[in-house]
Write a structure and sequence with these properties.
Leucine Aminopeptidase, subunit E, domain 1, 2 domains, binds zinc ion, binds ligand BES, alpha/beta
């Protein structure tokens, strides 16, 4: 969907449908008042007599001959005192679905011009709200052509609309990869996607195959991946904008399990259904890397992905196997389903060797985070208050919310192995997400600022949610692109 900006009078905008937002409990003003007048009070009538309350996201279609657009969608924004870019983003996503039902590929949206950042929020809401996971449906597919944002502040809106399009495309790229079923998605495919993104954006990319992974002493990643014919890959993608050649990079590390059956500690059928999403962390890294250049990010960034497929075969890892990670620590694999922390162990060790300024990892790591936070936010675990604070601020700005958990040293005890340095599960029921994070900390050098985002609850939804149809959400892409612009 192309997003254009216009400063025309809304009633003079000719489009397939004109979306006119309004606050609940407010006098009609501006274009709304004008339209209401030319419609003999139809809008006020809807409000006064037909139960249209203009609640956030509530909408009504009216037909008119008065303006240049025949179809007008009145879009509720709720109370003005509770208005925010999040309300607007969600409302825009609702409205775009209403336009879709009208079969109009082109429409206009009148910005309320009430707060900063409206064009960015509406642009994101429209593009993300329009997304359908229909890649595997046969037959004709509906596709939007363009949306025009109508505003009196067109200069700021132009820049925001461009940014919205780039950020949303990056999010959709992540969604696409996560939604791709595992029969079409191997570690090698992720490597090829990374190469594609690198080629398109002039980034540097390096891919290690299973032999190189072993040679490079990544015993934990190798162990997880060895049961599958789709062999593991270690992928590094680098963005070094001019003048940052000597800067320590910001490292983004992603868990890239292209399928997680649990291995010999096999998952029950229902828990396995959505395990194609176990590479959502890697998808965040790829989505972000695909947009940094066009967004003009001025920081050096290192994208790191450990990718494998957790399957069962005579070569697969057994419960009780002991592997050695790249930093020399030995791990007893008591549960082959706690594989994310194993592949990340090697990825984090390697990343620390590159002396990054900071590391942020993304992983669909634990079912326990879903119990703790549901699908509303990701778990944040960090050894650095400043990094956490900035990430939390980006979370608030994008509404990709983070909630910080403690990493008290006392939790370490649970992860010590009886016969090895570490074991990969605590063996206790409690604090599943924290002990996983504490395990990861064993592979991060002490003075490296590090944040781990457990995105297991937010990367995939089983029913439609504000900006997302059932399936992948791309959670993390908007968050980190906002973070990188701070
Ligand atoms: N990929 C799963 C975590 C997950 C759960 C992702 C739900 C998305 C939705 C991870 O590899 C896993 O299986 N974790 C285990 C760890 C346990 C064995 C300690 C879990 O959370 O059950
Ligand atoms: Zn698992
Ligand atoms: Zn997993």
């Amino acid at each position: 969907m192309q997003i254009a900006v216009s400063s025309q009078n809304p009633l003079e905008v000719s489009s397939g449908a004109l979306i006119l937002p309004l606050f609940s409990g407010e006098e009609l003003s501006g274009a709304l008042a004008e339209l209401d007048k030319s419609l003999d009070g139809l809008i006020s009538d809807l409000i006064e007599n037909d139960g249209f309350k203009a609640k956030s996201g509530e909408h009504r279609l009216v037909y008119t001959q008065s303006g240049a657009s025949k179809r007008v969608i009145l879009l509720g924004l709720g109370e003005k005192s509770k208005f925010s870019v999040h309300v607007l983003r969600k409302a825009a996503a609702k409205a775009v679905k209403a336009v879709k039902t009208l079969n109009k590929t082109e429409f206009a949206f009148v910005l309320p011009d009430a707060i900063e950042g409206e064009a960015l929020a509406v642009g994101e809401g429209l593009i993300l709200g329009a997304h359908a996971f229909d890649d595997f449906k046969s037959g004709d597919k509906f596709e939007f052509n363009s949306a025009t944002l109508v505003t009196t502040k067109s200069e700021a809106a132009e820049a925001e609309a461009t940014r919205a399009a780039l950020i949303s495309e990056a999010n959709l790229k992540a969604r696409y990869l996560v939604n791709l079923p595992s029969n079409l998605k191997s570690p090698d495919l992720l490597a090829r996607k990374a190469e594609e993104i690198a080629l398109e954006n002039g980034l540097k990319v390096t891919v290690w195959d299973e032999n190189k992974i072993l040679e490079e002493r990544m015993g934990a990643l190798y162990g997880v991946g060895m049961g599958s014919d789709n062999k593991p890959r270690f992928i590094v993608i680098e963005y070094t904008p001019e003048g940052t050649e000597n800067d320590a990079p910001i490292a983004l590390v992603g868990k890239g399990m292209t399928f997680d059956s649990g291995g010999y500690s096999i998952k029950p059928a229902a828990s396995m259904e959505d395990m194609k999403d176990d590479m959502a962390g890697a998808a965040v890294v790829l989505g972000v890397m695909s947009a940094v250049k066009s967004l003009g990010v001025k920081k050096r960034i290192l994208g790191v992905i450990a990718s494998a497929e957790n399957m069962i075969s005579s070569n697969a890892q057994r419960p009780g196997d002991i592997v050695t990670a790249r930093n020399g620590k030995t791990i007893e694999v008591l549960n082959t389903d706690a594989e994310g922390r194993l592949i990340l162990a090697d990825a984090l060790s390697w990343t620390c060797e590159q002396n990054p300024a900071q590391i942020i990892d993304f992983a669909t790591l634990t079912g326990a985070i879903v119990i703790a936070l549901g699908h509303e936010g990701a778990g944040l675990f960090s050894n650095d208050d400043e990094l956490s604070g900035v990430l939390e601020a980006a979370g608030i700005a994008t509404n990709e919310k983070l909630w910080r958990f403690p990493l008290w040293d006392d939790y370490n005890e649970a992860m010590k192995g009886p016969a090895s340095d570490l074991k990969n599960i605590s063996g206790e029921r409690g604090a599943g997400s924290i002990v996983a994070a504490v395990f990861l900390r064993e592979f991060v050098t002490e003075n490296t600022p590090w944040a781990h985002l457990d995105i297991a609850g937010v990367s995939f939804v089983r029913s439609e949610k504000h900006l997302t149809p059932r399936g992948a959400t791309g959670f993390g892409v908007r968050l980190i692109l906002d973070y990188l612009s701070r």
